[in-house]
Write a structure and sequence with these properties.
The protein has helices at residues 2-5, 7-10, 15-38, 45-58, 76-88, 92-116, 121-142, 146-161, 165-178, 183-192, 196-209, 217-234, 244-250, 257-281, 286-302, 312-327, 331-345, 358-385. The radius of gyration is 21 Å and the shape is globular. By secondary structure, it is an all-alpha fold.
Length: 386
């Protein structure tokens, strides 16, 4: 691990050069994926669903297929967001959607690196870039909105650290309207950050009424009713996903719904307790980093439809933690964190036997690392304050 930590010195990578290398990596990966997309080698089912929803919104048509758990399954506000990209059509809309998400993701990693390691931000950014692209590449290929959510989570964490509460509010409300998955972080922020207790409800009201600004009452109400029906369907998946139930099923234990709900409630209380501890025992930037990391980890384990590409939401946070271990030459912790990142990167189409269990297992290991690190930093800050 000392060799890994000394790579920047060996290649003469100062802050400026490290930034340049990181930018080249981000741009190069995007250029390759864009070429493959335009050449017809990528069949992006998720983005096509978003595009169709945007087209249906523009055409005043129903957004939801209520016969199965697949297809468009987000709030009507998401269709409103997708509408401009659908209007642009192929290929401009497809490329622009990916470009914005990719850029926001890279920028979020840079902003959080500046908070966590200001003196070594460029090197942290480079290391985290190399590690975070793996879990994100599937989202870039498919055009999934999870890339946007991951990016928004990073920016929200930084805005909370910097006490930019209105901007954090706007990003949280927008992200929740884009995809309900951001609701876990939203609820935790609502409870744990006092300046957000009135800002967030106000912003959510704006998000809630926004469809009425562009469509008639009857259409909007119908879409809201069908949205609730669709979300209820999705909460009862008809197959295994890469969440805690997928992990248990791979071990031979099929978790029934009552047991799952009890476990999810216990886990939710546990995550809330950990986040309360982080807010009370840690200063910024660590406090908001851990709140965001615990929220996204819980989401990966207990979202009923966690996919392999969903782990982009923990990927950047894990990459930043791994980069820190590498710079601090904490060999054992670095190798464990690298193993977690590798598990989130491996394509199960290449190794089909890892599907359903490897990523949630790695997420549990990541949670253990977070708890251990949080307690160690709390003790360090306590001793420093004596």
């Amino acid at each position: 691990m000392k060799l890994l930590a000394d790579l920047s010195d060996a290649f003469g990578l100062g802050a400026t050069r490290a930034m340049q290398v990181a930018h080249v990596i981000w741009a190069g990966v995007f250029a390759v994926m864009t070429f493959l997309l335009l050449a017809g080698y990528i069949h992006a089912v998720p983005y096509h669903e978003y595009q169709t929803a945007g087209q249906r919104w523009l055409a005043h048509q129903p957004l939801y297929d209520l016969t199965n758990i697949d297809g468009f399954q987000y709030f009507p506000q998401a269709a409103l967001v997708f509408a401009p990209f659908a209007k642009l059509g192929w290929p401009l809309g497809d490329v622009l959607w990916r470009a914005i998400g990719w850029g926001l993701y890279a920028l979020g990693i840079w902003r959080l690196a500046c908070q966590l390691k200001p003196a070594q931000a460029a090197i942290v950014y480079l290391y985290a870039t190399v590690l975070a692209i793996g879990p994100a590449i599937g989202n870039l290929v498919n055009g999934q909105a999870n890339l946007w959510l991951a990016a928004l989570s990073l920016h929200i964490a930084v805005d909370l650290i910097e006490q930019r509460y209105w901007r954090a509010t706007a990003l949280l409300a927008f992200g929740f309207g884009l995809k309900p998955l951001l609701g876990v972080l939203l609820l935790l922020v609502l409870v744990l950050y006092r300046p957000m207790t009135w800002r967030l409800p106000l912003a959510l009201c704006v998000v809630f009424v926004s469809p009425w600004l562009l469509r008639d009452h009857a259409y909007v109400m119908t879409q809201y009713r069908e949205c609730l029906t669709k979300l209820a369907l999705c909460a009862q998946p008809d197959r295994q996903f890469e969440d805690v139930r997928g992990l248990f099923s791979s071990l031979g234990w099929t978790m029934e719904q009552p047991a799952y709900l009890v476990l999810r409630a216990i886990a939710a209380l546990g995550v809330l307790a950990l986040c309360v501890f982080a807010r009370r025992a840690l200063r910024e930037p660590q406090s908001s980093f851990y709140v965001t990391a615990f929220a996204t980890s819980y989401l990966m384990l207990f979202n009923p439809r966690t996919l392999s590409t969903s782990y982009v939401m923990t990927g950047a946070l894990g990459a930043l933690l791994t980069a820190r271990y590498m710079l601090e030459r904490r060999t054992r912790a670095a190798w464990i964190a690298l193993a977690v990142m590798l598990a989130w990167t491996i394509n199960y189409h290449v190794l089909p036997f890892v599907e359903h269990w490897l990523r949630p297992l790695a997420c549990l290991v990541f949670l253990a690392l977070l708890v251990y690190e949080m307690r160690a930093q709390a003790r360090s800050q306590e001793l420093a304050g004596l």
